[in-house]
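Consider the tokenized backbone below.
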């Protein structure tokens, strides 16, 4: 019999202890398969052998009905008794050679890989696929190996791609699935960020336990996973086009986001600089979100559990705070919450360069927002010597600016916002130019930093397309700035600040606002740049 074909796109690993009350594993797995699961692993760590085999047989009847392979975790004896399609083994289980001898060549054998040493050993076996992780810390597997994070996963995959294995190019070809803490909020970045730059090796899919097993609606959750994974497959058909196609226009979409922020009132945890704390809190409140400032390590997990967003602003941070900034980003990452990183003055001092590298290299920042010098510094341009926090702009060429944001977004697999007279935004595929602010913004401290607050609020409630949320946030911010400046009785920056907050406040009940405020169609105030 030939080996069953292997599709690791959405790999369900079970744990019946996590099932919601009243649900059976077999019913749950069947619904998950209907939602798009492509392979199932029965992983029951505490079940007695007889019950394990009986459950395996029952489950196999279902998986066979849908033509989906069933593997057994750790137990070759159970796999043989069930007669299913294979096993998944780790480094405390049977040796690969024994498993292969007992199961024969027509069964699938997957092996866990958590580090380079295990990768070399797995390569020597020539196993059928590898499960790489944990990507994030997870309570589903107690005492797991250290979480790799997406940069660690990318490095490990790059290393694996160089391993010749039995076929000479085994490492490049072996299908790889990521596991550990993967959910709907982070699945896309796991896929995007794990890919090495020249696409030397990319993941074949993701393996998920709790996000599917603990859900009350496994079919819907799996359908959402499949959709998100499809976006990763085909980045040209980026979600923002889909979003616009489903709304009547930008105007309609942006208004909906502004209203949703005010209804849902997301928490925006600010770790920001002393100069702008008050203004940022007021901006956050004005758009209807809920600001909180905290710089204590012990509060991070509880604040992340609110499922809002984080603004991480390096404006007045000290050497002693470096570790906290990273911990804050990681706490948000672990909870799947968006992080807006503002590397204020990144190119001004060596401390700031160091903090920037630490955060960007060890955590995921969904959005990085900065002026041209800051963005260039994040890109690794060490020729930039910023004077203070101001941008020492090095180009007047709009296309070069657009290229810079696109290049960084591609590298980081995130969204880059470069602020200036004209703002540039890119997700690495599509790049936009927004030129609708007002010059008075440059004369009021905190206006750049608190743009991060509105971006965080919008992205936290519109995670299905962060790019659209960012475009909406900048458009709302600039519209409020422009209209406040053009309003009557504005004498200067002091009165403008008040009028600006009032306009932002009005925007959240969008029907009060004239249609002209918002961008109706692409090209009006939001332009797609061809780079
Ligand atoms: C797809 C996949 N990848 C990795 C693992 C982890 O397996 P292992 O290292 O054997 O740990 P336990 O699952 O036995 O706790 C997996 N199960 N599946
Ligand atoms: C089995 C296993 N191996 C590494 S992490 C993990 C558990 C993943 O579970 P979850 O998807 O709930 O984080």
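A designed sequence for it:
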């Amino acid at each position: 019999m030939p080996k069953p074909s292997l599709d690791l796109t959405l790999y369900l690993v079970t744990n019946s202890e996590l099932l919601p009350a009243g649900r059976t594993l077999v019913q749950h797995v069947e619904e998950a398969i209907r939602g798009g699961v492509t392979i199932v692993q029965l992983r029951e760590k505490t079940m007695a052998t007889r019950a394990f085999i009986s459950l395996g047989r029952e489950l196999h009847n279902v998986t066979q009905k849908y033509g989906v392979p069933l593997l057994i975790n750790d137990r070759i004896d159970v796999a043989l008794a069930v007669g299913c399609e294979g096993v998944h083994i780790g480094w405390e289980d049977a040796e690969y050679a024994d498993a292969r001898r007992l199961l024969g060549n027509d069964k699938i054998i997957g092996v866990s890989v958590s580090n380079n040493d295990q990768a070399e050993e797995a390569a020597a076996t020539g196993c059928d696929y590898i499960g790489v992780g944990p990507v994030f810390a997870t309570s589903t597997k107690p005492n797991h190996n250290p979480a790799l994070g997406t940069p660690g996963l990318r490095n490990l995959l790059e290393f694996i791609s160089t391993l010749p294995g039995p076929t000479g190019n085994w490492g490049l070809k072996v299908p790889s699935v990521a596991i550990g803490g993967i959910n709907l909020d982070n699945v896309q970045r796991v896929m995007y960020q794990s890919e090495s730059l020249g696409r030397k090796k990319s993941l074949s899919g993701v393996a998920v336990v709790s996000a599917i097993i603990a859900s009350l609606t496994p079919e819907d959750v799996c359908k959402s996973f499949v959709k998100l994974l499809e976006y990763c497959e085909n980045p040209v058909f980026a979600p923002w086009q889909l979003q616009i196609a489903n709304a009547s226009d930008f105007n309609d979409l942006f208004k909906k986001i502004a209203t949703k922020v005010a209804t849902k009132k997301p928490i925006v945890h600010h770790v920001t600089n002393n100069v702008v704390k008050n203004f940022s809190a007021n901006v956050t409140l004005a758009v209807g979100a809920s600001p909180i400032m905290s710089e204590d390590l012990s509060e991070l997990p509880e604040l992340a559990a609110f499922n809002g967003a984080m603004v991480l602003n390096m404006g007045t941070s000290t050497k002693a705070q470096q570790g906290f900034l990273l911990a804050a980003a990681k706490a948000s990452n672990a909870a799947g919450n968006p992080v807006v990183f503002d590397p204020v003055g990144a190119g001004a001092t060596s401390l700031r360069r160091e903090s920037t590298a630490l955060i960007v290299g060890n955590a995921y920042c969904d959005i990085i927002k900065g002026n041209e010098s800051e963005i260039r510094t994040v890109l690794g341009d060490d020729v930039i010597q910023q004077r203070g926090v101001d941008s020492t702009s090095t180009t007047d060429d709009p296309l070069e600016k657009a290229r810079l944001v696109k290049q960084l977004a591609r590298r980081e697999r995130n969204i880059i916002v470069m602020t200036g007279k004209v703002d540039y935004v890119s997700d690495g595929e599509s790049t936009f130019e927004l030129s609708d602010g007002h010059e008075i913004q440059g004369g009021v401290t905190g206006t750049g930093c608190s743009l991060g607050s509105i971006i965080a609020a919008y992205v936290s409630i519109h995670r299905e397309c962060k790019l659209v949320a960012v475009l909406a946030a900048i458009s709302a911010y600039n519209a409020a700035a422009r209209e406040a400046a053009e309003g009557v009785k504005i004498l200067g920056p002091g009165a403008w600040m008040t009028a600006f907050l009032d306009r932002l406040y009005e925007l959240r009940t969008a029907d009060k606002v004239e249609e002209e405020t918002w961008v109706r169609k692409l090209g009006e105030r939001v332009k797609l740049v061809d780079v």
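Residues 13, 133-134, 138, 140-141, 144, 179-182, 208-211 surround TZP (ligand 2) (CB under 6 Å).
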